[in-house]
Specification:
Shape: globular
Number of strands: 6
Order of helices and strands: HHHHEEHEEHHEEH
Keywords: Membrane, Transmembrane, Transmembrane helix
Distance between the termini: 66 Å
Number of helices: 8
Strand content: 5-15%
Structural class: alpha+beta
Strand order of the largest sheet: 4-3-5-6
Length: 255
């Protein structure tokens, strides 16, 4: 009987996803999370594109930033007063006010955007990974929910930036410019910290939570999990920089 049940599970079209999600290998876990998230993203995109109005999720924390995106209107002038109207870099002569006004704001806004995404990663990935129901960490449920919501954002063109090309379909290009890297970094952070369990229970109906360790103890990272965790933070930083470039390009840092 047990062999038959196992055989049926292996033959199930999505059975291999379970093997990936609960694999001991961190890279296989990442693949499992991304595949599951991608399925939900596609379903949500179809729902958003065909059934929901455009801009349905605008002015929500899915697209807005907790710490804002306000830059500095004087940073270029400040540097121009000290370096002069132009400065030379190798053989190029560069406008001080324009270059520092642009890239100074990109770096400044990058810090704000990164702080926003890291706050959500800290709260909904690293913190929720401290709790496990059966074999599932609560952070996995958040990642799947986030994947679905992101699909709705893209499908309804709810980004505050103009769509790249054809309006709603063009929102996919915007997603590929930075959103996909945020999503990817969350998967990396989730996979590398999935064993940081503090409290565990067998099911949602079971009120008995068992302690697996101390809440404030910083779990050790080693080998592949450490690499994946570091890559997760780096991808989060890179995605923040990419989004900050869009924000400054469209002048939204001035409002």
């Amino acid at each position: 009987m047990a062999n038959n049940a196992q055989s049926k599970a292996q033959k199930h079209p999505l059975g291999f996803l379970g093997k990936l999600v609960f694999s001991e290998d961190v890279y296989r876990r990442v693949g499992g999370y991304l595949l599951c998230g991608l399925l939900l993203f596609v379903v949500a995109w179809v729902i958003g594109y065909f059934l929901l109005p455009e801009g349905f999720l605008k002015n929500t924390w899915l697209v807005d930033k907790i710490f804002g995106v306000k830059g500095s209107e004087t940073i270029g002038t400040w540097w121009a007063d000290r370096l002069g109207e132009t400065f030379k870099l190798f053989k190029w002569e560069i406008s001080t006010e324009e270059s520092f006004g642009t890239w100074g704001n990109v770096l400044f806004v990058t810090v704000k955007v990164f702080a926003h995404y890291f706050f959500f990663a800290l709260l909904f990935v690293l913190f929720l990974n401290r709790f496990k129901v059966g074999r599932f960490s609560l952070a996995l449920f958040y990642f799947l929910f986030y994947s679905f919501l992101t699909g709705l954002v893209v499908g309804t063109n709810s980004y505050p930036y103009p769509a790249q090309g054809l309006v709603r379909v063009g929102a996919l290009v915007t997603f590929l410019r930075f959103g996909i890297w945020v999503w990817f970094s969350y998967a990396l952070l989730l996979a590398s910290t999935v064993d940081w369990t503090w409290l565990q229970t067998s099911s949602f109906t079971d009120g008995a939570w068992k302690k697996e360790g101390r809440f404030w103890a910083w779990p050790r990272l080693a080998g592949d999990t450490k690499e994946v965790f570091i890559f997760g933070l780096l991808f989060l930083l890179v995605s923040s920089f990419a989004e900050a470039r869009l924000i400054v390009y469209y002048g939204q840092h001035l409002f």
